[in-house]
Amino acid sequence: MSSRIYFMLVAIFTVAAVFQFSGQVSGAQHCGMNTNVLGQLVSQCEKYVLKSGPKIRPSPGCCAVVKKVDVPCMCKFVTKQIEEIVSIEKMLYVARSCGIKISAGTKCGSFTVRSA
């Protein structure tokens, strides 16, 4: 798996993205994720959270994986490097579109979540 894909993963839900390699794994593990779920996030959700392109509703496959992720926990691990690749606003849109509740005021990198 390429480092860019790993970065996208951590950032999504973030999962997560551009930590230093050990930071990605420990951040994901801290939030109860294993590498299988991280791989699924990348393959199913990558196109919905990239900075480039329009904001589009996530697929059922993406939502199935997103529901396995503790998004507010992963938000604690979002770095400036992640934000260079992933749109945090799109990431939160995907999470909410998939039924994940994220409280207003939650910090996700430099982004503060507003009311839905």
Automatic annotation (TrEMBL):
UniProt cross-references to SUPFAM superfamilies, sorted A to Z: Bifunctional inhibitor/lipid-transfer protein/seed storage 2S albumin
Annotated ranges, domain Bifunctional inhibitor/plant lipid transfer protein/seed storage helical: 24-108
Domain of life: Eukaryota
InterPro entries assigned to the protein according to its UniProt record, in alphabetical order: Bifun_inhib/LTP/seed_sf, Bifunc_inhib/LTP/seed_store, NsLTP-like
Keyword Ribonucleoprotein included in the entry's annotation: no
Swiss-Prot/TrEMBL keywords: Signal
Signal peptide: 1-27
Signal in keyword set: yes
Name the record gives this protein: Bifunctional inhibitor/plant lipid transfer protein/seed storage helical domain-containing protein
